[in-house]
C-alpha cells in the first residue's frame, strides 16, 4: 500500500471520528453530518480499494484517475456550497421575518405605553381634583 493511499485512509478515518464526535457533542447537525460522513466513507473506499479510482474514471470516460478525483472533489464542493447557500437564504428569510415581528411588537408596546401614560395622568389629575 502506497504512503499516499495510507495517508488518505488515515485522514478520512480521522474526519469520520471528528464528525461523529461533533454530532455526539451536538456541535454539528445531522443534516450536515450526513454529507461529511458520506465524503469520509467515499475517501476511505477510494484509498482502500486500489483500482477503484481508475475503474470509476474509465466508467465515466475520464482519462486519468487524478482528473476523476479532482472532478469528484469539485462536484462535492459545489454540492456543499449549494446546500449552505440554500441554508443561508432560509436563515436570512427567518431573520427578516423575526425583525419585522419585533418591529411590530415594539410599535404595539409603544402604543400600549402611551395609553397607560394617558390613563395614569388622567387618574393622577382626578386624584388631585378630589383632594380638598
UniProtKB/TrEMBL annotation:
It holds the Pfam family DUF2304. Keywords: Membrane, Transmembrane, Transmembrane helix. The keyword Membrane applies. It comes from the Bacteria. InterPro entries: DUF2304 (IPR019277). The chain crosses the membrane at residues 6-23, 35-56, 62-82. This is DUF2304 domain-containing protein. It comes from Lentzea jiangxiensis.
Amino acid at each position: 500500500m502506497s504512503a499516499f493511499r495510507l495517508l488518505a485512509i488515515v485522514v478520512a478515518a480521522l474526519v469520520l471520528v471528528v464528525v461523529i464526535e461533533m454530532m455526539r457533542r451536538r456541535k454539528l447537525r445531522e443534516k450536515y453530518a450526513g454529507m461529511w460522513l458520506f465524503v469520509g466513507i467515499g475517501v476511505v473506499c477510494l484509498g482502500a480499494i486500489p483500482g477503484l479510482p481508475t475503474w470509476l474514471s474509465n466508467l465515466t470516460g475520464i482519462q486519468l484517475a487524478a482528473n476523476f478525483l479532482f472532478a469528484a472533489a469539485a462536484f462535492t464542493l459545489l454540492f456543499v456550497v449549494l446546500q449552505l447557500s440554500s441554508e443561508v437564504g432560509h436563515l436570512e428569510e427567518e431573520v427578516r421575518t423575526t425583525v419585522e415581528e419585533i418591529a411590530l411588537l415594539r410599535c404595539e408596546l409603544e402604543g400600549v405605553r402611551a395609553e397607560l401614560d394617558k390613563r395614569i395622568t388622567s387618574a393622577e389629575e382626578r386624584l388631585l381634583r378630589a383632594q380638598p
